Amino acid sequence: MTEYVKPITPSWCPGCGDFSVLASLKKSLLELKIPPEKTALIGGIGCAGGYHNFTDAYGYHSMHGRLLPTAIGVKLANPSLTVIAAGGDGDGFAIGMGHFVHTLKKNPSVVYVAMNNETYGLTTGQASPTSPVGFEGNIEMPFNAVLTALSLPSASFIARGFSGLPKELTALMTEAIRFAQDRKGFAFLEVLTPCVTYNDNYDEWRKRVEDVTKLPGYDPTSRPKSFELCLEVMERGKIPIGKIFSPAPDKLPPSLDSQVVPDPLKAPALLDISVEHNMAKYQKLLASLG
């Protein structure tokens, strides 16, 4: 038997940036009027990997680093679902790095919300792939997920938000979900989510974030301009946020799911697999073996 468990209160530290992301996610789903039975939340490992436990929707806790292939599998099994994968920077950009790059390449119509606090918060604050040089003895340059996403031609919607700006974050979340819901392709939303226990940089990030949509020359439909604008912002010591890239409608590459399962009504999860419905096929198969 399966016991239905109601959503519970998150166990995050008071002030954790993940609270803002969860609130934005719920607001977006309500605004878009997506019912719980049409929503599938896939969680990763770590503090950011338990979102499906705190919402009234279908949820699945994936293996460490396997968040995105799990989400892709759900979407291909039932394209009518709005599939949202939520995880942290350690889960997504360390053991899950290969899947992140291949998901950008495959371009499935799923939303990937990557919460970046630049540390392994759940395991007491070690340096993560996105940690700056000097943090907890880190000597490696930090990984930049947005620049990586921009470098792969098939990536569709790319944005970055900040948990300290909830109104703007909700707008980005809504647009990302709507993009994937319309089967336009992969929607990648990185969110700066300070870890108040091991890496409390709310004040620093609030001073450094800069909305690229308000800058001269902003053109979200141009990959080269988006990349150049992000680099210009970073060279000034700032962090680019906002809607960074989204191709023009006539330039959208085909999504993985629209090619594999063109007709959502014929998705594997919706097929009638009852014995009665398939008896003739079973008998034909048995006869061919004789």
Q: Could you walk me through the main structural features you see in this protein, from its secondary elements to its overall organization?
A:
The protein has a single domain (18-264), classed as 3-Layer(aba) Sandwich (Rossmann fold), CATH 3.40.50. Helices cover 36% and strands 15% of the residues. It has helices spanning 18-31, 67-77, 89-95, 97-106, 145-151, 166-181, 202-208, 223-235, 256-260, 275-289, and strands spanning 39-43, 58-61, 82-88, 111-116, 157-162, 187-192, 209-211, 239-245. It is globular.
Oligomeric state: single chain
Helix content: 25-40%
CATH class annotation: Alpha Beta
CATH architecture: 3-Layer(aba) Sandwich
Q: Mean pLDDT across all residues, rounded?
A: 91
| Most strands sheet | 8 strands, mixed
Highlighted features:
eight-stranded mixed beta sheet; single chain; 8 strands; Rossmann fold; 10 helices; 290 residues
Furnish the topology, listing elements before pairings:
Elements lengths: L17 H14 L7 E5 L14 E4 L5 H11 L4 E7 H7 L1 H10 L4 E6 L28 H7 L5 E6 L3 H16 L5 E6 L9 H7 E3 L11 H13 L3 E7 L10 H5 L14 H15 L1
Parallel strand pairs: 1-2, 1-3, 3-4, 4-6, 5-6, 7-8
Antiparallel strand pairs: 5-8
Helix pairs in contact: 1-6, 3-4
Brief overview:
This protein has 290 residues and is of the alpha/beta class. It has helices at residues 18-31, 67-77, 89-95, 97-106, 145-151, 166-181, 202-208, 223-235, 256-260, 275-289; strands at 39-43, 58-61, 82-88, 111-116, 157-162, 187-192, 209-211, 239-245. It has 10 helices and 8 strands.
